[in-house]
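so my prof wants the structure for this chain in the tokens format not the other one, which i didnt know existed until like an hour ago. anyway here's the sequence
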Amino acid sequence: MKDYWLSKLISSVKKVDSRKRLQKSIYLLQLADCPLKCDYLLHYYGPYSFELADLIDQLKGAEIIKESADLTGYGNQRYISQIADKGTRVLGEFEKSKTGKDLYAQIKRFVPLFQKLNQEDLWVLELGATVGYYYKGNWEVALIQTAAFKKIRKDDKNLLRAIELAKAFVPAS
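here's what i got, hopefully its the right format
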């Protein structure tokens, strides 16, 4: 199920420009009750899932998605993910089955949200996921904790944008 859902989300965009973007986007979608339900922990760059990283590697190994390495301006590598031709075929065939239709029904409302997150500024996305991680019923506390963790000011304009982004994915109490 998780392999289908992740493949479906990746197939909905031309490419995902980094694994960081994929990690943070899926985390925010899960806050909005996306069925993927990967386990996350807090990492230097915000919420991180070893389970999701393994799932990406499995899909890559099965040639459902493909990744290409790209050097950043700082000499680091980032991995650009996109659906592979085989993945497009497999998804199309699977979605004709009853199980495929049922699983699609569970993920379809998250596809436009994922597409939107794929366009979001990566720093704001990282901050937004981190705010979401810290949110336990009080946005001000989540803002303060995120600012301390990321070593930025509480009134940083990107952090303020990130709070609004996180609020869009956290169900109202």
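also thought this was worth mentioning. The two ends are 29 Å apart (CA to CA).
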